[in-house]
Automatic annotation (TrEMBL):
Keywords: ATP-binding, Coiled coil, Cytoplasm, Cytoskeleton, Microtubule, Motor protein, Nucleotide-binding. This is Kinesin-like protein. The lineage of its organism: Eukaryota, Metazoa, Chordata, Craniata, Vertebrata. Residues 920-943 have a biased composition (Polar residues). PROSITE patterns: KINESIN_MOTOR_1 (PS00411), KINESIN_MOTOR_2 (PS50067). ATP binds at G85, Q86, T87, S88, S89, G90, K91, T92. PANTHER family: CENTROMERE PROTEIN E (PTHR47968), KINESIN-LIKE PROTEIN (PTHR47968:SF68). The keyword 4Fe-4S does not apply. It comes from Gasterosteus aculeatus aculeatus.
Length: 966
């Protein structure tokens, strides 16, 4: 209560650290901190009540933001903590954190813990009743919880579950339960949390059992939806944009804050349910702290700036706080009396003043003592007040006004009716706003439809233009085609002329060809004849030759028996001469023939001889080759042998050398011996001689052997050289023969080549002849086709000419047919365009129909969904009602029992007291009760936390909770 009544909203700013994906992306860390109250972004400083850097712990945040609020709430003030910021800026981390980790837990679990710790340390006469409730508002869903106002015109959320709690564990259970319920309904947590506000309300009521003083405090803990969607509209405080998917409640929050900051008279609290519920937190009776959560990444700079701007605006809002005291009946009565007195005195004052005014107006001058005296009036009021106080002091327990039961009932009925009306109005407002939303949607749809149809229209227009252009183009084309046709006809005439010329030419050529071919055939036949003649002549020549030979043979025979034949011939002088001449001739001939025959024989002989020689030579060659190889082998063996002999020789020489050495040695020895033993000289000499002789003979033999060996060696060498020479010769011969052979071969080859050429030439000629024939045939064929074509063309031309003549008889001119054709084509074109247009129109109609149908479908789907949800709700309500009824019955039973007990003098209470000074007892409620019984107590049953009692026991029987105070 030490704080002044008016206080500004506290705004704290918290920056989270860069998360891993931002680090991976390489984002910059943009905030620069200056002291505890300033942060600089993009060179611009922003000041708040406190700025938390990224490394601030949860505990530090709690101590700075929330600890004081706990105390305030327990002293009867209202409190609110908001977390505002874009998605994943750390709102949930700040408000909830890790609920079951002592270091990482956020503000809510710490507050819960602290509230209870605080209560345990307070005055023993206080009794606390703590009620928690939590709910979420999805910003897109239309079936949300509705907001109503209670009898003190304080808005509350209708239908949200509330629960009386008496230990931190129970609160945490409630939170966990709420979370698990949400898990069932939503799959994508992140998306969900970015689109919904989650609100946690702790309601603390306390009563001093001695003074009956009642205080109440409400603490709202709000985790707002992600602010990013609103940044372009609401955060700027501008008029709400009509774009879809806007987080309406957030933008209205922005609007409320802007209006409050600007000091506008009208604050649009009723724009959204959330601002209605939090009306007190914003510019009302509440101590409010806003924690704006920011991302430090350069990627989010824009959002961060707009978040900071929001915080700056919110900082200027002023709230007026008062303690929420609940008056007792007595206090109410006093207040009533006092007000009544005040009222009467004020009325007196008014009448007095009116009288005085009238008098002044009427021109009277009012004397000073009759003028209104404020002090006097105040004194009068004071006196009356005192009288009332005295009266009350003297009659403490007599109630002033008593309502009869009937009146009470009436009043209650009236109140109920009024509430009903209020509810109805709320419902109506809700419906109206939904309707407005729907209508807006419809407007948008219509606009869209309009735009699309306009677009279609434009498209169609463009299409039409295009088609017209095409039509023009095709007309031009047709004209061109006709021109081309004319040209073609002219061309055709020319061509046909040419063709005629060509055919004539061709005929001439073919005639020539036939002439040539006939000449060719005649030449052929001549050639044949000549061949025959040559054959014939050859034959004759051979015949003549054979006859001549025969003659010669006969002559030969005749020559052989010349004398015999000549002798018997009758001879006279004339014949004799001739005979002699003939004989001379014959003899000559005979000799010649003889010589010829001889030569012939000789030649034959030489030929056969040479053949034989050839054979022999070949054989010899083969033999020589064989021999050469043998000799080579021999040479090889001889060289080897030579080498052996050489070696032997060397050995022998070595032997000789060694022997010589021995000899020298021996002679030396002998000399020594001779010198030493002169006595024995003679014998020794003899011996020496013998030895020398022996040696001599030995050496001679040796020498002889060597010489013979050397001779042998020489012989062998000679032999080798001879053999080599022979070999050389044979090789030469062989070479020569080979060369000859080659020559023969080449001549043979040449001949065969010539023969081949001749045959090829013959073949070619034959082929050429055949080709010529084929050519002739094809030419004839082509000619035929050409002829046919010409005929056709001529026919066509004739018909055309006829037609044109007919046309000429009409007066339309030569291009009538063409015109007809053009008109036909145009007709076709028109029909086609008509069909096309029709199709386009149909298409457009269908397209128009489509969105309508889609909308209808959507509407029905929505209706079905709504009906389903309504059904579900109705079922749930029924279940709840049943439960409530059951509980009511139980409660009444309990109350009756309690009353009975009280009448009997026992003190029993339906309350679970928690008292200051008492250690936090283990939650007396059975944890299963809450869950098995659907979870929540309704407002009707209270579980209170009381001061004073050192311990309390509770027993649970049949779902009832019975508490006995010791
Ligand atoms: P929001 O509720 O604003 O969408 P969250 O609270 O879910 O964002 O935070 C997003 C992520 O960032 C979470 O994984 C959270 O643990 C982490 N985070 C937020 N603030 C901090 C902080 N101050 N220190 C460490 N991690 C944080
Ligand atoms: Mg969140």
């Amino acid at each position: 209560m030490a704080d002044p009544a008016e206080c500004t909203i506290k705004v704290m700013c918290r920056f989270r650290p860069l998360n891993s994906s931002e680090v991976v992306r390489g984002d910059r860390y943009i905030p620069k901190f200056q002291g505890e109250e300033d942060v600089i972004i993009g060179g611009k400083p922003y000041m708040f009540d406190r700025v938390f850097q990224s490394n601030t712990t949860q505990e530090q945040v709690y101590n700075a933001c929330a600890q004081k609020i706990v105390k305030d709430v327990l002293e009867g003030y209202n409190g609110t903590i908001f977390a505002y910021g874009q998605t994943s800026s750390g709102k949930t981390h700040t408000m909830e954190g890790n609920l079951h980790d002592t270091d990482a837990m956020g503000i809510i679990p710490r507050i819960v813990q602290d509230i209870f710790n605080y209560i345990y340390s307070m005055d023993e006469n206080l009794e606390f009743h703590i009620k928690v409730s939590s709910w979420e508002w999805q910003t897109v869903s239309k079936t949300n919880l509705s907001v109503h106002e209670d009898k003190n015109r304080v808005p509350y959320v209708k239908g949200c579950t509330e629960r009386f709690v008496c230990s931190p564990d129970e609160v945490m259970d409630t939170i966990d339960e709420g979370k698990s319920n949400r898990h069932v309904a939503v799959t994508n947590m992140n998306e969900h949390s970015s689109r919904s506000h989650s609100i946690f309300l702790i309601n603390v009521k306390q009563e001093n059992t001695q003074t009956e003083q009642k205080l109440s405090g409400k603490l709202y803990l709000v985790d707002l939806a992600g602010s990013e969607k609103v940044s372009k509209t609401g955060a700027e405080g501008s008029v709400l944009d009509e774009a879809k998917n806007i987080n309406k409640s957030l933008s209205s929050l922005g609007n409320v804050i802007s209006a409050l900051a600007e000091g506008t008279a009208y604050i649009p609290y009723r724009d959204s349910k959330m601002t209605r519920i939090l009306q007190d937190s914003l510019g009302g009776n509440c101590r409010t702290t806003i924690i704006i959560c920011c991302s430090p990444s350069s990627y989010n700079e824009c959002e961060t700036k707009s978040t900071l701007m929001f915080g700056q605006r919110a900082k200027t809002i002023k709230n007026t706080v008062t303690v929420n005291v609940e008056l007792t009946a007595e206090q109410w009565k006093q207040k009533y009396e006092r007000e009544k007195v005040k009222n009467t005195t004020l009325r007196n004052t008014v009448t007095w003043l009116e009288n005085e005014l009238n008098r002044w107006r009427n021109g009277e001058s009012v004397p000073v003592e009759e003028q209104f005296d404020k002090e006097k009036a105040n004194a009068e009021v004071q006196a009356l007040d005192n009288i009332i106080n005295e009266k009350q002091a003297s009659t403490p327990n007599v109630p002033g006004v008593r309502l009869t039961d009937v009146e009470k009932d009436k009043c209650e009925a009236e109140v109920v009716k009024l509430y009903k009306q209020l509810d109805d109005k709320d419902e109506e407002i809700n419906q109206q706003s939904q309707l407005a939303e729907k209508l807006k949607q419809q407007m948008l749809d219509q606009d869209e439809l309009l735009a699309s149809s306009r677009r279609d229209h434009e498209n169609l227009q463009a299409e039409l233009n295009r088609l017209q252009a095409e039509n023009e183009a095709s007309k031009d084309e047709v004209k061109e085609v006709l021109q081309a046709l004319e040209e073609l006809a002219v061309n055709y005439d020319q061509k046909s002329q040419e063709v005629e010329d060509k055919t004539k030419e061709f005929e001439a050529i073919s005639e020539e060809l036939s002439q040539k071919s006939s000449i060719l055939s005649s030449l052929d036949s001549e050639l044949q004849k000549l061949k025959e003649m040559s054959n014939h002549q050859k034959k004759r020549v051979t015949e003549m030759m054979s006859s001549l030979l025969k003659d010669l043979a006969e002559i030969g025979i005749a020559v052989g028996s010349n004398d015999i034949k000549v002798l018997p011939c009758p001879v006279n002088g004339y014949y004799n001469e001739e005979f002699t001449v003939a004989r001379l001739y014959i003899s000559k001939m005979k000799s010649e023939v003889k010589t010829m025959a001889k030569r012939c024989k000789q030649l034959e002989g030489t030929q056969s001889e040479s053949n034989q020689k050839m054979d022999e030579n070949e054989k010899e060659l083969a033999a020589c080759q064989l021999r050469i190889s043998q000799h080579e082998a021999k040479i090889k063996s001889l060289t080897e042998y030579l080498q052996n002999v050489e070696q032997k020789k060397r050995q022998l020489e070595e032997n000789v050398d060694s022997l010589n050495e021995e000899l020298v040695k021996l002679s030396a020895q002998e000399k020594v011996h001779a010198m030493e033993k002169e006595s024995e000289i003679q014998t020794a000499n003899e011996v020496k001689e013998a030895v020398e002789k022996q040696i001599h003979s030995h050496r001679d033999a040796h020498q002889k052997q060597i010489s013979s060996l050397r001779d042998e060696l020489d012989n062998k060498e000679k032999l080798i050289t001879e053999l080599q020479d022979l070999n050389q010769k044979i090789m030469l011969e062989q070479e020569r023969l080979r060369v000859e052979h080659e020559k023969l071969k080449s001549t043979d080859q040449e001949k065969s080549r010539k023969l081949h050429e001749l045959t090829v030439m013959q073949d070619r000629r034959e082929q050429a002849r055949q080709d010529l024939k084929g050519l002739e045939e094809t030419v004839a064929k082509e000619l035929q086709t050409l002829h046919n074509l010409r005929k056709l063309f001529v026919q066509d031309l004739a018909t055309r000419v006829k037609k044109s003549a007919e046309m000429d008889s009409d007066d339309t001119g030569g291009s009538a047919a063409q015109k007809q054709k053009i008109s036909f084509l145009e007709n076709n074109l028109e029909q086609l365009t008509k069909v096309h247009k029709q199709l386009v129109r149909d298409n457009a109609d269908l397209r128009c129909e489509l969105p309508k149908l889609e909308k209808r479908l959507r509407a029905t789907a929505e209706r079905v969904k709504a009906l389903e949800s309504a059904l579900k709700e109705a079922k749930e309500n029924a279940a709840r009602d049943r439960k409530r009824y059951q509980q009511e019955v139980d409660r009444i039973k309990e109350a009756v029992r309690a009353k009975n007990m009280a009448r009997r003098g026992h003190s029993a209470q339906i309350a679970k007291p928690i008292r200051p000074g008492q250690q936090p007892v283990a939650s007396p409620t059975h944890p299963n009760i809450n869950r098995s019984g659907g979870g929540f107590y309704q407002n009707s049953q209270t579980v209170s936390i009381r001061g004073g009692g050192s311990s309390s026991s509770s027993s649970i029987a049949g779902g009832d909770i019975k508490h006995e105070k010791k």
